[in-house]
Amino acid sequence: MESPENRCSWHGSPTPHDNDPVMLWYVAYGSNLHRDRFLCYLAGGRPAGAARTYTGCRDPRPPAADRPVLLPGGIYFAQTSPVWGGGVAFYDPSLPGLAPARAYLLTTGQFSDVLAQEMRRAPTADLDLSPALATGRQTLGPGRYETVLNPGDLDGHPMLTFTAPHTAAEAALNPPSAAYLAMLAGGLHASHGWSPRQVTAYLMSRPGALGTVRP
Q1: Could you give the maximum distance between any two Cα atoms of the chain, in Å?
Q2: Is residue 87 part of a domain?
């Protein structure tokens, strides 16, 4: 039987988000491409195969919507993940090409809490994201996911993602683990409908993947 901590789904009434004052798209390009995993950031719990249990958001409702998107630029693999044991994905808008991603429509509070959990902090307060909305970029701190980028709008709501403060050319590149690649592969297939061949060709071409060269 599945452990309760592996169930990362909303069990309350399906309350709509229509009355929330500010909605935005959180754009995921890494392991949160996989919706079931991402729901653990909202409702709390431990994703299957993960080494970490997530606190969940103060507002645990599921996204009001989600859809596949393409971001200008690309991802690269760098640093070392305490969850996966290898390099993890970061977004660099200066890289050539397009990065497949998945946009989740959240409240500002939910986005703030997702970012807090990425930085291993307790979700406590909404972020002031006005600099990112006004200029396209906001630095919250030096952490690996404390640079917020606004690549544009979608259906009248801003898109926001977060990444490292450095570019792929400046990063300490590190190949990802097989488990992390499998999570990305599942997310890419589910969100974009890519075939295994497309997924493999894309992931293996990213800076930091085994056999690639520094951009």
Answers
A1: 49
A2: no
